[in-house]
Amino acid sequence: MLRRSLPGWLLALTLTTFAFSTDDYLVAGVLPGLADDLHVAESTAGQLVTVFSLVFALAAPVAAVVTADWPRRPLFTAALAVFTAANLVMPFVTAFPLLMALRVLAALAAAVVVPGALGAAAVLAPPERQGRYLSIVLGGLTTALLLGVPLGTWVGAVAGWQGAFVLGGLLGAAALIALYVTLPEPPRGERLRLADRLAPLTRPGLLVGLTATAFAVLGNLALLTYLAVYLRDLAGIGPTGLGVVFVLAGVAGLVGGQLGGPAADRWGAERALLMGCVAFAVVMLGLAACWPLRPAPLVLVMPLLLLWSAAAWWIPPAASARLLRLAGPAGQQALALNSSAVYLGVAGGGAAGGLLLGTLGSGALPLGAAVAQGVALALFALTSRWAPGGRGSRR
Fold first, then answer.
1. Positive or negative CA dihedral for 132, 135, 137, 143?
2. How far apart (Å, rounded) are the C-alpha atoms in residues 131 and 322?
């Protein structure tokens, strides 16, 4: 039963998303030492994260269109080889511009593989398990926060920032081998013309759905980016307590993500999305209601934080399954655009949260997150017009 539920290629795809996500966060854990060794300001070194995210967001849709008809296994293994080499060369780098160039290469490889991994999972999954399989591959992203980032930080403390990037390279090599050995080629459908590959850019339902994804992520990151400030002001939680909160919230997010996919299979992606978005907004209102009680007791705040994390990670598998239904044969291009929407939401959440923090104070963050999630929910509902069988769908 376990083999049927978790085929080897699915575990390999999950390892791949884990490797890329861990690598994306490595810089944060080794930033001071890296900046000192390369004689740049920490703010300058932090741009390695910005460049990685920006390159990924811009390149993922282009890569999905260009490589739509390429065989998956050689494409993924070639991109992972580039990613692995870009990380393993890091210890020999002594100039910051070269380091930046290597991060661009790693981001380009991620832009090819991550949306493609989700697309392969969706195509290879049995129809009744598509949401479950998507949630497992997306679980690699959550697990990176729980295991990969702390491990990378520890390796960086022991072996320097160079050792952390070697870890990223080794994870890439492991993913490369696993995919090469286990990944079957998805069935080749009808060859799509360029116009068909670009279809996600012209379908109103997809564009609305992508905008909804961006708002959902924006609402989450508006609070998450400034969570340390918010919890300090709300409950007097310091750095030690914050570490415990992040670990517990990460576990809750992993659980929520693994439940969101099966819920989409069982009840339909639309209903699962509704449940996740409503739960998220209700939890944000609950956190807002705690503000007059400050310093609020942790026994009251912690369950809300865990529910928040679970709801936030419940949404992506259901949203991806919904997007695939809207996209039809252009599913991989739609997933690539969805990845870009996520990164835009991350950037927008940091900006929106900073604006709220600077003008209204940290107490306004949950309310702002609830409003953004309400907008996302309304947009997700609007996509029903273009869903197959919906009022605005096109045959």
1. negative
2. 9
CA 106 to chain CA centroid, nearest Å: 16
Taking the whole predicted model, whether its pTM rises above 0.85 is answered as: no
**Sequence letter at residue 278:** V
Each residue's pLDDT, cut to its tens digit, for the chain (395 residues) gives 344 567 899 999 999 999 998 887 777 667 778 888 888 887 678 778 778 878 888 888 888 878 877 888 999 999 999 999 999 999 898 899 999 999 999 999 999 998 888 888 888 888 888 888 888 998 887 788 777 767 777 888 888 889 989 999 999 999 999 999 999 876 655 555 656 666 556 677 778 888 998 899 889 888 887 887 888 899 988 767 777 887 788 889 888 988 988 888 888 888 898 899 999 999 999 999 999 998 998 889 999 999 999 999 898 888 888 887 777 666 777 777 787 888 788 778 878 888 898 899 999 999 999 999 999 989 988 876 665 544 444 33
Domains of the chain: 2-182 (1.20.1250.20), 199-386 (1.20.1250.20)
Cα dihedral sign, 256-260-266-270: positive
What would you report as the CA-atom Rg of the chain, rounded to the nearest whole angstrom? Answer: 21
Which residue carries 């012209």 as its tokens? 202
Within 8 A by CB and 6+ apart from 387, the residues are 205, 270, 322, 325, 326, 393
